[in-house]
Write a structure and sequence with these properties.
- By secondary structure, the protein is of the alpha+beta class.
- It folds into two domains: about 100 residues, Peroxidase, domain 1 (Orthogonal Bundle), CATH 1.10.520.20; about 80 residues, no CATH class.
- About 60% of the residues lie in helices and about 15% in strands.
- Helix 2 packs antiparallel against helix 6.
- The protein is elongated, with a radius of gyration of 22 Å.
């Protein structure tokens, strides 16, 4: 079974347990910390996947890093994952937890890429439009790409709306390069 599938199952179990115990938001913050640690530390990633390092040593490292920084439930969860020899899934599990959390809380992630930063009114308008289209609470991530020149690229799940000047110019260029278009003139 792939690590992503295993991570998804562990994440779902942790989410269900956190809801049952009433500690969902605390566990989510713990998962965000775990994800941040994974993303910022290549040695940590390699340690989790290294089959030469014994599981008890990995558990000691995890405890040294996270004891006192995460809830007792998350700490126990890390211990269980380690005892089951599944430390490698700890790299992808926080993202899977976030996906499960978003599903449970009816949150839709969207990414808006613009040439310049959005102001508050534009941000609110995008949130309103995407919420109206999806019927979900929106978690909007903003990216800046000056090469767009103007306009925006909005990505919601696997759908993308590209209304950038860069793409409009590319479409126009393609039309002029298309011989059949020139012959129609």
């Amino acid at each position: 079974m792939s690590d992503i599938r295993v991570a998804s199952r562990y994440a779902k179990s942790l989410l269900d347990l956190a809801i049952e115990k009433g500690t969902l938001e605390q566990v989510r913050q713990d998962m965000l910390l775990l994800d941040k640690t994974v993303q910022q530390n290549r040695d940590y990633q390699l340690m989790l996947k290294n089959p030469i390092i014994k599981h008890d040593k990995k558990l000691a490292i995890l405890k040294a890093i996270f004891d006192g920084k995460v809830s007792p439930m998350t700490s126990l969860f890390l211990e269980i994952v380690t005892k089951k020899h599944r430390e490698a899934v700890l790299e992808s599990m926080p993202k899977e937890f976030e996906n499960q959390y978003n599903l449970k809380m009816n949150i839709q992630r969207a990414t808006i890429t613009t040439a310049v930063p959005l102001d508050a009114a534009q941000r609110e308008e995008f949130n309103r439009l995407v919420a109206a289209r999806t019927g979900k609470t929106i978690q909007l991530e903003e990216k800046i790409d000056p090469s767009l020149i103007g306009g925006f690229v909005l990505t919601i799940g696997d759908k993308q709306v590209d209304d950038s000047i860069k793409s409009s110019l590319q479409r126009l260029r393609n039309k002029f390069n298309d011989n059949s278009y020139i012959s129609k003139l």
